Amino acid sequence: MIVVIATMRAKAGSEQDMGRLLQSLIPETRKEKGCIQYDLHVAAEDPASYAFYERWVDKAALDEHFQTPHLSAALPQISQMAEAPPSIVIYQLAG
């Protein structure tokens, strides 16, 4: 199993649009083979800061996720609304 933490920050004025777009990814992603958990969070004191907490059965399942139509369609929109490219960190169990 791997864990992914993907963070991004919306440009000023794009916070709600980005939130809606990110929320729209959840239903289809949760249906993907290999997806164990896919949850969106917004920072408690910063409504422009978003984070996905994801758990996948393996790296191959995550790689397939990046090829899905719903994510491929959303990435250019995210790029337009975000201050910078998303930070994506992949973790695996230690030891």
Q: Main β-sheet: number of strands, strand sense, barrel status?
A: 4 strands, antiparallel
What structural category arises from helix and sheet content?
A: alpha+beta
Radius of gyration: 13 Å
Low-confidence sequence ranges: none
Number of helices: 3
The share of residues in helices is 25-40%
Reported CATH architecture = 2-Layer Sandwich
Sheet with most strands: strand arrangement = 2-3-1-4
Strand segment count: 4
Q: What form results from the Cα inertia axes?
A: globular
- CATH class (first level) name: Alpha Beta
SSE series: EHEEHHE
Measured between the Cα atoms of the first and last residue, the distance is 13 Å
Strand fraction equals: 35-45%
Number of domains: 1
Name the average pLDDT: 96
CATH topology: Alpha-Beta Plaits
Describe this structure in words.
This protein has one domain: Alpha-Beta Plaits (2-Layer Sandwich), CATH 3.30.70.100. The protein is built from 3 helices and 4 strands, in the order βαββααβ. The mean pLDDT is 96. The protein is globular. With 95 residues, the chain is α+β, with helices and mostly antiparallel strands. It has a 4-stranded antiparallel β-sheet with strand order 2-3-1-4. The chain has helices spanning 15-31, 59-65, 69-81; strands spanning 2-9, 35-43, 46-56, 87-92. The protein is 39% helix and 36% strand. The longest helix is centred in the N-terminal third of the chain and has 17 residues, at 15-31.
Question: What does the secondary structure layout of this molecule look like, with pairings?
Answer:
Blueprint: E1 2-9, H1 15-31, E2 35-43, E3 46-56, H2 59-65, H3 69-81, E4 87-92
Antiparallel strand pairs: 1-3, 1-4, 2-3
Helix pairs in contact: 1-3
